[in-house]
What we know:
This protein is an alpha/beta fold. It has 7 helices and 7 strands.
Amino acid sequence: MSQLEGRVALITGASGAIGRAIAVKLASQGAAIAGHYGSNLKGITETARLVAAAGSEARTFKADISDTAQIRAMFAGIDDTYGRLDILINNAGVGIQKSISEISEEDYESAFAVNTKGYLFCMQEAAKRIGEGGRIINISSILAQLSRPGTALYAATRASARVFARIGAQEFGPQGITVNSISPGPVEPGMFQDASEAAKQHARAMSPFNRVGAPEDIADIVAFLVSDQARWITGQDIVAAGGAVS
Protein backbone atom coordinates (compact mmCIF):
# COMPACT_ATOMS: atom_id res chain seq x y z
CA MET A 1 0.00 0.00 0.00
CA SER A 2 1.35 3.41 -0.96
CA GLN A 3 2.11 5.61 2.03
CA LEU A 4 -0.41 8.31 1.04
CA GLU A 5 -3.17 5.94 -0.06
CA GLY A 6 -6.57 7.28 0.96
CA ARG A 7 -5.32 10.81 1.62
CA VAL A 8 -6.38 13.93 -0.25
CA ALA A 9 -3.89 16.69 -1.00
CA LEU A 10 -4.72 20.22 -2.15
CA ILE A 11 -1.87 21.92 -4.01
CA THR A 12 -2.42 25.59 -4.80
CA GLY A 13 -0.72 26.85 -7.94
CA ALA A 14 -0.68 23.30 -9.32
CA SER A 15 -0.57 24.61 -12.88
CA GLY A 16 3.03 25.82 -12.47
CA ALA A 17 6.28 23.88 -12.51
CA ILE A 18 6.79 23.40 -8.77
CA GLY A 19 3.11 22.78 -8.05
CA ARG A 20 2.96 20.22 -10.86
CA ALA A 21 6.02 18.36 -9.61
CA ILE A 22 4.53 18.24 -6.11
CA ALA A 23 1.19 16.99 -7.42
CA VAL A 24 2.81 14.22 -9.46
CA LYS A 25 5.08 13.17 -6.60
CA LEU A 26 2.26 12.90 -4.08
CA ALA A 27 0.09 11.15 -6.66
CA SER A 28 2.82 8.56 -7.20
CA GLN A 29 2.58 7.81 -3.48
CA GLY A 30 -1.16 7.25 -3.62
CA ALA A 31 -2.68 10.63 -2.73
CA ALA A 32 -5.74 11.93 -4.54
CA ILE A 33 -4.89 15.37 -5.89
CA ALA A 34 -7.02 18.49 -5.74
CA GLY A 35 -5.15 20.80 -8.08
CA HIS A 36 -5.84 24.51 -7.76
CA TYR A 37 -5.21 26.99 -10.55
CA GLY A 38 -5.93 30.64 -11.10
CA SER A 39 -6.05 31.16 -14.86
CA ASN A 40 -3.56 28.75 -16.47
CA LEU A 41 -5.96 26.18 -17.90
CA LYS A 42 -3.32 24.67 -20.17
CA GLY A 43 -0.96 24.21 -17.24
CA ILE A 44 -3.50 22.59 -14.92
CA THR A 45 -4.68 20.29 -17.72
CA GLU A 46 -1.11 19.05 -18.12
CA THR A 47 -0.81 18.57 -14.37
CA ALA A 48 -4.01 16.52 -14.30
CA ARG A 49 -2.74 14.38 -17.17
CA LEU A 50 0.53 13.65 -15.39
CA VAL A 51 -1.24 12.89 -12.10
CA ALA A 52 -3.45 10.38 -13.91
CA ALA A 53 -0.37 8.86 -15.54
CA ALA A 54 1.11 8.47 -12.06
CA GLY A 55 -1.89 6.32 -11.18
CA SER A 56 -3.95 8.69 -9.06
CA GLU A 57 -7.07 10.81 -9.29
CA ALA A 58 -6.85 14.49 -10.13
CA ARG A 59 -9.64 17.02 -9.84
CA THR A 60 -9.03 20.66 -10.68
CA PHE A 61 -10.39 23.69 -8.87
CA LYS A 62 -10.27 27.22 -10.29
CA ALA A 63 -10.12 30.04 -7.76
CA ASP A 64 -8.68 33.49 -7.29
CA ILE A 65 -7.11 32.97 -3.88
CA SER A 66 -6.93 36.70 -3.27
CA ASP A 67 -10.72 36.44 -2.82
CA THR A 68 -11.81 34.73 0.41
CA ALA A 69 -15.22 33.88 -1.05
CA GLN A 70 -13.53 31.94 -3.85
CA ILE A 71 -11.23 30.22 -1.35
CA ARG A 72 -14.24 29.07 0.66
CA ALA A 73 -15.99 27.89 -2.51
CA MET A 74 -12.91 25.88 -3.51
CA PHE A 75 -12.78 24.13 -0.16
CA ALA A 76 -16.51 23.46 -0.32
CA GLY A 77 -15.91 21.87 -3.73
CA ILE A 78 -13.25 19.63 -2.22
CA ASP A 79 -15.73 18.65 0.52
CA ASP A 80 -18.29 17.72 -2.10
CA THR A 81 -15.76 15.81 -4.22
CA TYR A 82 -13.76 13.95 -1.60
CA GLY A 83 -15.45 14.46 1.73
CA ARG A 84 -12.09 15.00 3.40
CA LEU A 85 -8.76 16.84 3.22
CA ASP A 86 -5.47 15.65 4.69
CA ILE A 87 -2.76 17.82 3.14
CA LEU A 88 -2.49 21.46 2.08
CA ILE A 89 0.46 22.66 0.04
CA ASN A 90 0.34 26.46 -0.20
CA ASN A 91 2.33 27.05 -3.35
CA ALA A 92 0.53 29.65 -5.50
CA GLY A 93 2.41 32.89 -5.88
CA VAL A 94 2.81 36.20 -7.66
CA GLY A 95 6.37 37.19 -8.49
CA ILE A 96 7.21 40.90 -8.70
CA GLN A 97 10.73 42.21 -9.16
CA LYS A 98 10.93 45.98 -8.68
CA SER A 99 12.97 48.32 -6.56
CA ILE A 100 11.24 49.89 -3.57
CA SER A 101 11.12 53.23 -5.39
CA GLU A 102 9.29 51.61 -8.32
CA ILE A 103 6.66 49.59 -6.43
CA SER A 104 3.13 50.82 -7.03
CA GLU A 105 0.17 50.40 -4.71
CA GLU A 106 -1.28 48.01 -7.28
CA ASP A 107 1.89 45.89 -7.13
CA TYR A 108 1.68 45.84 -3.36
CA GLU A 109 -1.98 44.85 -3.29
CA SER A 110 -1.49 42.14 -5.91
CA ALA A 111 1.49 40.49 -4.21
CA PHE A 112 0.11 40.51 -0.69
CA ALA A 113 -3.37 39.47 -1.83
CA VAL A 114 -2.11 36.15 -3.22
CA ASN A 115 1.17 35.42 -1.42
CA THR A 116 0.02 36.44 2.06
CA LYS A 117 -3.76 36.74 2.24
CA GLY A 118 -4.26 33.67 0.05
CA TYR A 119 -1.92 31.55 2.17
CA LEU A 120 -3.51 32.65 5.43
CA PHE A 121 -7.09 31.93 4.46
CA CYS A 122 -6.24 28.64 2.76
CA MET A 123 -4.59 27.58 6.02
CA GLN A 124 -7.66 28.69 7.93
CA GLU A 125 -10.03 26.67 5.76
CA ALA A 126 -7.72 23.64 5.70
CA ALA A 127 -7.42 23.57 9.48
CA LYS A 128 -11.21 23.27 9.74
CA ARG A 129 -11.01 19.99 7.83
CA ILE A 130 -7.63 18.37 8.40
CA GLY A 131 -7.41 16.02 11.34
CA GLU A 132 -4.84 13.91 13.18
CA GLY A 133 -1.78 13.22 11.05
CA GLY A 134 -2.57 16.07 8.68
CA ARG A 135 0.02 18.26 7.03
CA ILE A 136 0.26 21.91 5.97
CA ILE A 137 3.29 23.14 4.03
CA ASN A 138 3.87 26.73 2.89
CA ILE A 139 6.24 27.27 0.00
CA SER A 140 8.30 30.35 0.84
CA SER A 141 11.58 31.50 -0.76
CA ILE A 142 15.21 31.86 0.20
CA LEU A 143 14.80 35.51 -0.83
CA ALA A 144 12.95 36.06 2.45
CA GLN A 145 16.34 35.58 4.16
CA LEU A 146 18.51 37.57 1.74
CA SER A 147 18.90 41.23 0.84
CA ARG A 148 18.65 41.32 -2.95
CA PRO A 149 17.84 44.63 -4.66
CA GLY A 150 14.54 44.46 -6.47
CA THR A 151 13.08 41.70 -4.30
CA ALA A 152 11.68 43.64 -1.33
CA LEU A 153 8.01 43.12 -2.11
CA TYR A 154 8.24 39.46 -3.07
CA ALA A 155 10.57 38.67 -0.18
CA ALA A 156 8.24 40.34 2.32
CA THR A 157 5.28 38.27 1.18
CA ARG A 158 7.32 35.06 1.27
CA ALA A 159 8.55 35.88 4.78
CA SER A 160 4.93 35.82 5.90
CA ALA A 161 4.64 32.21 4.70
CA ARG A 162 7.37 31.22 7.14
CA VAL A 163 5.77 33.14 10.01
CA PHE A 164 2.39 31.55 9.32
CA ALA A 165 4.03 28.12 9.41
CA ARG A 166 5.80 28.70 12.72
CA ILE A 167 2.72 30.03 14.45
CA GLY A 168 0.37 27.61 12.70
CA ALA A 169 2.46 24.76 14.06
CA GLN A 170 1.66 25.95 17.58
CA GLU A 171 -2.01 26.63 16.94
CA PHE A 172 -2.81 23.49 14.93
CA GLY A 173 -0.53 21.09 16.79
CA PRO A 174 -3.27 20.10 19.26
CA GLN A 175 -5.24 18.80 16.24
CA GLY A 176 -2.30 16.55 15.32
CA ILE A 177 -1.36 18.69 12.31
CA THR A 178 2.24 19.52 11.45
CA VAL A 179 2.93 22.84 9.75
CA ASN A 180 6.21 23.65 8.05
CA SER A 181 7.60 25.85 5.29
CA ILE A 182 10.12 25.27 2.52
CA SER A 183 12.34 28.06 1.20
CA PRO A 184 13.59 27.13 -2.26
CA GLY A 185 16.50 28.85 -3.90
CA PRO A 186 16.36 29.50 -7.67
CA VAL A 187 14.35 26.79 -9.45
CA GLU A 188 14.11 26.22 -13.18
CA PRO A 189 11.61 25.82 -14.76
CA GLY A 190 9.71 28.21 -12.54
CA MET A 191 9.78 31.95 -11.88
CA PHE A 192 13.56 31.92 -12.22
CA GLN A 193 13.45 30.79 -15.85
CA ASP A 194 12.88 34.39 -16.95
CA ALA A 195 16.07 35.59 -15.25
CA SER A 196 19.00 36.78 -17.34
CA GLU A 197 21.68 34.29 -18.32
CA ALA A 198 24.15 36.21 -16.14
CA ALA A 199 21.82 35.77 -13.15
CA LYS A 200 21.47 32.08 -13.90
CA GLN A 201 25.23 31.61 -14.11
CA HIS A 202 25.66 33.42 -10.80
CA ALA A 203 22.97 31.27 -9.17
CA ARG A 204 24.65 28.07 -10.40
CA ALA A 205 27.99 29.21 -9.07
CA MET A 206 26.50 29.83 -5.61
CA SER A 207 25.82 26.12 -5.15
CA PRO A 208 28.56 23.51 -4.73
CA PHE A 209 26.55 21.38 -7.16
CA ASN A 210 26.95 24.12 -9.80
CA ARG A 211 23.30 24.09 -10.76
CA VAL A 212 19.98 25.62 -9.78
CA GLY A 213 17.15 23.61 -8.33
CA ALA A 214 14.63 21.57 -10.25
CA PRO A 215 10.93 21.37 -9.31
CA GLU A 216 11.45 17.72 -8.42
CA ASP A 217 14.02 18.72 -5.78
CA ILE A 218 11.30 20.64 -3.96
CA ALA A 219 8.67 17.95 -4.53
CA ASP A 220 10.86 15.33 -2.86
CA ILE A 221 11.17 17.48 0.26
CA VAL A 222 7.40 17.97 0.31
CA ALA A 223 6.92 14.21 0.01
CA PHE A 224 9.09 13.65 3.07
CA LEU A 225 7.37 16.34 5.15
CA VAL A 226 3.90 14.91 4.44
CA SER A 227 5.03 11.37 5.26
CA ASP A 228 4.59 9.61 8.58
CA GLN A 229 8.37 9.71 8.97
CA ALA A 230 8.16 13.50 9.41
CA ARG A 231 5.56 13.35 12.19
CA TRP A 232 7.96 14.99 14.70
CA ILE A 233 8.94 17.90 12.45
CA THR A 234 6.80 21.00 12.79
CA GLY A 235 7.25 24.76 12.86
CA GLN A 236 10.40 24.47 10.75
CA ASP A 237 11.61 26.21 7.61
CA ILE A 238 13.59 23.93 5.29
CA VAL A 239 16.04 25.85 3.12
CA ALA A 240 16.21 24.02 -0.20
CA ALA A 241 18.90 25.83 -2.14
CA GLY A 242 21.54 23.21 -2.85
CA GLY A 243 23.95 24.63 -0.31
CA ALA A 244 23.97 28.00 -2.05
CA VAL A 245 25.81 30.78 -0.31
CA SER A 246 25.44 34.49 -1.03
